[in-house]
Amino acid sequence: MQRLADSLNVLSTHDTDVVPGEQVNADQLSARVSPSVALALRLANEVQASSGDTSRDSELLVVIHITRDSARHDVIPTVHVSPLAVVAAAGMPASVAVAVAHQRRPGPFGAKSSAWLAQRQEMSALCPPDCTEVITTAPLACDEEASSSASAPLLEGLVNNLFIVATHGIDDAQTRVVVQTASVAEGALPGIIRIAVLAACHDLGYTIIEAAPVAPPDGKGDVRWTEAFLCNAVRLLQPIRLIRWLPPCTRPELHFQEAPGPVTRAIQAYVMQALASEDQLSPPF
Prior knowledge:
Elements: H1 2-14, H2 26-51, E1 59-69, E2 74-84, E3 96-100, H3 115-124, E4 133-137, H4 142-145, E5 154-157, E6 161-168, E7 176-181, H5 192-204, E8 207-210, E9 223-232, E10 236-245, E11 254-255, H6 262-274
Parallel strand pairs: 3-4, 3-10, 7-8
Antiparallel strand pairs: 1-2, 4-5, 6-7, 6-9, 9-10, 10-11
């Protein structure tokens, strides 16, 4: 409810397509939304019971859409519930290839707006047939835009958060593992799985950097990208085997020899365990 309230308040003050209104808090929103969620879940359970499949528990995907009623100075909740295929039982999803486009999601950031569903259609068309996701980027500095080899900071996918695993150091004795992802302030959407991944990194002792990662020069410096993965509420963690930069960037493709790598596997195992308890879904930092 806090995430819904935050999104609604951000959109109300920044988006001209949203009718401005008084700021709402999570408790006020819960009073309006919870009855609709309860009704939707009850109906979903009735449908499952009528199908005769009561042999096992099921997972449901719940989407809550909030609009403002300017006439009544109120919010109108709409709740969508559908069965969610459980991917955890099958283990880690297959590794994928992703394409990096020099475009970014329109602001305001830190808000989940349904307008993004329409806005991302044009960017979806940029995805090559052998890639499954388009990674958005932050703008380059003016002096960098003239160079086609410049790599813009990576933000997130169209439907996923992006995490990069890098090693910092010259040799094994001095190497540390760093997990990096774009911050919400830069344009990354907040999400439950993103929070769970950050919490897992914290508890597993990996250094966390919340700043849009920039690919290091090939063969130079003491930073190497060794793993990468996507995450969202449906697929959880999905390893990346290849990152391809689309024109005008001429940077060569980056192949990961091991996908998933050991860090991705460790984080996924921890997240799966943590998701069994809602108490562990709040970031400890």
